[in-house]
Amino acid sequence: MNGRFMLDGQPVMFEEGQTILQAAKAAGHYIPSLCWHPDFPPHGSCKLCIVKVGGRHVSSCALQAKDGMEIESNTPEINGERRALLQMLFVEGNHFCPSCEKSGNCELQAQAYELEMTSARFNYFFPVRPVDASHPDILLDFNRCIFCELCVRASRDIDGKSIFALTNRGIHKHLVVNAESGRLGDTDFSALDRAASICPVGVILPKRVGFAVPIGERIYDEKPISLVSMEKER
Amino acid sequence: MNTSSLETAENRESLRKVVIDPVSRVEGHGKVTLLLDEEGEVREARLHIVEFRGFEVFIQGRPYWEVPVMVQRLCGICPVSHHLAACKALDHVVGAQSLTPTAEKMRRLMHYGQILQSHALHFFHLSSPDLLFGFESEVGKRNIVGVAAAHPEVARQGVLLRKFGQEVIRATAGKRIHGTGAVPGGMNRHLAPDDQRMLKADVAKMIEWSRAAVELVKRLHRADPVLYDAFGTFSSGIMSLVRADGAMDLYHGQLRFRDANGAITLDAVPDQDYHSVIGEQVKPWSYMKFPYLRDLGPDQGWYKVGPLARVQNCDFIPSPFAEAERREFIAHGQGGLIHATLAYHWARMIEMLHAAEVIRDLLDDPDLMDGPLLSTGTHAREGVGIIEAPRGTLIHHYQVGEDDLVSMCNLIVSTTHNNQAMNTAIRAVAQRYLSGHELTEGLLNHIEVAIRAYDPCLSCATHALGQMPLVMELVGPGGETLSRVTRG
Ligand code: SF4
């Protein structure tokens, strides 16, 4: 059944089966997200896409749109909560954007700009996460992982290899490589795998590229993520 | 004057201690301690610097292509020098035997922009207040604001020279600070036509003002030759890069050493072989190592680097105005090397003039705006990059493993090369001006003036814009504070 809901006071039409996030984006309304990807089922882990429906918080990437819903998204309150989620992601890993080669192409950083995050606010965890450079073509820098599991999903569902997995819980959660040695070089991972190019942050990187594209000329240097993501999915 | 005896005093325990302690900042922290005997005679003088400790370790285990961006964080003052030195070292790792003309010229432009802005900052903001008003002048006026009030045109030109240098950096590196323009094997950008036009419109004025700055320093020397020739003067060898034909080249060259009399003792040492000629000594009282020429050993083999060394080490400067100034400078030495600490400023302004001339010539080159940017070749596991940074020779040395991660990193920064020289300078000043006197802020400032002539990479020395915040304490033999002077 098709229908209509109200998003921040504006009517949005949707088709049967669409989530709030899909319908909103299709109608030209941006809702921030990190772990959501159009090629995969909703994951609901980053919580950046939270909205309020009838006063309750829900993940808009996962909840089916229903006729007559009253939804709040782009409000100071919800954007403040999104900002706090980003701040937690930043302190949980080791993000040193100025020397990170993903800078300017990074969705986490772009969201931080989008949502006007100006400080880290919380204490840094400084987790110890060594890099894995064992693969000839790909570098893994676990310091920047945000646990969106896009690589896990892409490797399992598209590449059919299941090379990545998350292990442990809470603050001990981390990304691991499915090999006895734990090293990417000991798997059949290839730079052509879908999982090799899906990381929204600077964890899975092609080697020896670095700063070949100047900072200042990168995806989100030119346009904010709200515009880029709407154009991409149109 | 024998100053070496002031490195370590006998019966240190019975002496009064003076600590000159600029407030600690992130990038570096310097401290001077003086030990005085009952008569107030200086018995020991040391400059300790807590330098970039741990940075080498930080770099190890990182992918090599990240390093040129990462090392800019070593230093808030000359990030471009570290950026370029790292790239020069890593050019060897990516097998770039030679750079494309575009990449080489863009890097040179960036580097000379850095020289210009750094020399302007140093001279106008940090040193001109001491030089124009006197070392013991009123503290409240001895700063750039004071200069702006008394000599508005000098201050204005200083600010604009620096700004021009920063614009050159922005146009080549992408940003005024912490750009990413250079990459191992070349560059990632051309010069934009708008930037070329904008820089070309101003460069003639920069040359004119740089010439005026050299004149200003010469005037100061002429006005008080005794002070300028004697203050903190001590003889030592010198070292810098020079081009294969003997020309001054601040971006690339071979190492040349001269002894204190000016005779060339080692020449045409390829940058990749620095380690075979330079050793580094560790002393228990300083975190900073003491480099020396291996042939001569640590006691005889230390040397000065920086403008004073470079202007006297080259055979000529390949730009007309600066070359004329170099000749006049050399003539001032009457056949010998000039060792006066304050002559650093004179040499520095000659280099600033040269940088402005180089920038003018480069800006006419069409290669900057067009042409391939990157070279590659067979990858290697090791590389050394040496550049003449504003403060002196800067060495970056890396080894890279099979997995592309840095496995070894050794950096020798200009302040480290000058470690022994700065220590010797403050000993000379302490002996000549402080010994036997009641210590005042003005006398204390003599020590700073000597240190500042070397423009050491203490962030405190620059962020504080001419006023290193200072604490001086006289501590008696029993540890009691006898007197305390603070400033800043
Ligand atoms: S991954 Fe993104 S947020 Fe993290 S350091 Fe790199 S650019 Fe910054």
Structural descriptors:
heterodimer, A: 234 residues, alpha+beta, Ubiquitin-like (UB roll), Alpha-Beta Plaits, 2 domains, 5-stranded mixed beta sheet, two-stranded antiparallel sheet, 6 helices, B: 488 residues, Cytochrome-c3 Hydrogenase, chain B, 5-stranded antiparallel beta sheet, 4-stranded mixed beta sheet, 17 helices, 43% helix, 18% strand, globular, binds iron/sulfur cluster
Short description:
The complex is a heterodimer of chains A (234) and B (488). Chain A is 23% helix and 15% strand. With 234 residues, chain A is of the alpha+beta class.
- Strand numbers in spatial order across the main sheet of chain B: 3-2-1-15-16
Report the sheet with the most strands of chain B, covering strand number, pairing sense and barrel closure: 5 strands, antiparallel
Could you state the order of secondary-structure elements of chain A as H and E? EEHEEEHHEHEEEHH
CATH superfamily of chain B: Cytochrome-c3 Hydrogenase, chain B
CATH topology grouping of the largest domain in chain A: Alpha-Beta Plaits
Q: CA-to-CA gap between the ends of chain B? A: 32 Å
Query: What is the average per-residue confidence, as pLDDT of chain B, rounded to a whole number?
Result: 85
Q: Quick one: overall form of chain B?
A: globular
Low-pLDDT runs of 5+ residues of chain A are none
In one word, what is the shape of chain A? globular
Are any ligands bound, and if so which?
A: iron/sulfur cluster
Q: What is the end-to-end distance of chain A?
A: 23 Å
CATH class of the largest domain in chain A: Alpha Beta
Can you count the beta strands of chain A? 9
- The overall average pLDDT of chain A, rounded, is 93
Looking at how many chains there are and whether they match, the oligomeric state comes to: heterodimer
Instruction: Supply the number of helical segments of chain A.
Output: 6
> How many domains is the backbone of chain B divided into?
1
Structural class of chain A, by secondary structure, is: alpha+beta
Q: Indicate the radius of gyration of chain B in whole angstroms.
A: 22 Å
Biggest sheet strand line-up of chain A: 2-1-5-3-4
